[in-house]
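Re: [ENG-882] Designed sequences occasionally contain unexpected residues at chain ends

Forwarding the minimal case from QA. Structure tokens:
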């Protein structure tokens, strides 16, 4: 999908405040508008979003060669887990909610570096994130919401 005005629903729901999609995730999944995600929630949310997209766009493969899609899913899970392992942190730190002082505003923070890497890598997760934020697509809130909350805090 193109990220321009050609695919916008003019009559659809639009954000009324900066970071609204991110705050919706915090409120709906953490019970507090100001709650922050852990780096694991960010990374695994993107993984699940990517897999949902792959299954939706590759229905033929899903129906006729599910073992190939399963192999792809397993390989992607390994790749996303490798991203978490590369942080060289314990489970407590990976599962701990991030904060501005330690993570978002610290250029040496491995969490910040990974968030920015995810924002800039292919496939273009940033494009899907921007579209979900712009249109308040709540169907993507569970998977892209943690990433939206982290990017909102960084930017």
């Amino acid at each position: 999908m193109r990220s321009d005005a050609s695919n916008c629903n003019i009559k659809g729901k639009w954000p009324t405040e900066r970071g609204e999609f991110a705050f919706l995730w915090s409120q709906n999944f953490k019970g507090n508008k100001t709650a922050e995600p852990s780096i694991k929630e960010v990374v695994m949310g993107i993984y699940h979003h990517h897999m949902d997209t792959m299954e939706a766009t590759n229905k033929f493969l899903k129906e006729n060669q599910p073992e190939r899609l399963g192999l792809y899913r397993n390989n992607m899970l390994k790749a996303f887990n490798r991203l978490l392992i590369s942080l060289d942190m314990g489970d407590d730190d990976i599962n701990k909610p991030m904060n501005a002082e330690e993570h978002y505003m610290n250029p040496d923070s491995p969490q910040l570096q990974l968030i920015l890497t995810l924002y800039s890598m292919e496939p273009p997760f940033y494009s899907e994130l921007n579209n979900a934020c712009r249109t308040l697509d709540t169907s993507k809130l569970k998977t892209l919401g943690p990433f939206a909350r982290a990017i909102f805090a960084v930017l």
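QA comment: On inspection the terminal residues look reasonable. The chain has a mean pLDDT of 89. Proposing we downgrade this to a documentation issue.
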